[in-house]
Give the backbone structure.
Amino acid sequence: MKVRKLITGALVLLIVASVAVFVARQAGFVSANLIPFGSSSDSPRHKIIAYYFHSTARCKTCLNIEHYTDEALKTNFADYLKSGKLEWRVIDRDVPPNEHFVQDYQLYAQALIIVDSTPGQPSEWRNLEDIWLHADDKSAFINYVRTQVDQYLRRL
């Protein structure tokens, strides 16, 4: 009887933990792209990170910027994304665990930030502010993002 209670308790705990992780991912507290322990990616490595920072309240233009960036990265850099040399992260900067990004990257509005992340060195980053100039022209927007990200990927 005690064994059955232990197994039931363990299963309930597993279900509660799974639901908590799901909720945390949906709320933006935890990345959905976690790498399991024991993988070859446990050690730090040189990579490029593309962050799109948005506020909780979003307009059509802000959503378009996210979608256009997603398309630009997935269409032009699929191999880099798959290998982990390029990471694509969408972050709500208004969620309390993410508020530090406002200071880290001097954010004053929605922003696309490209970061050259090299272990043991300060990260070099750039705010692609011209996304706002191309927000109404999908083709020009995608070309701009492709060109800027390509400059960073050449460093790898």
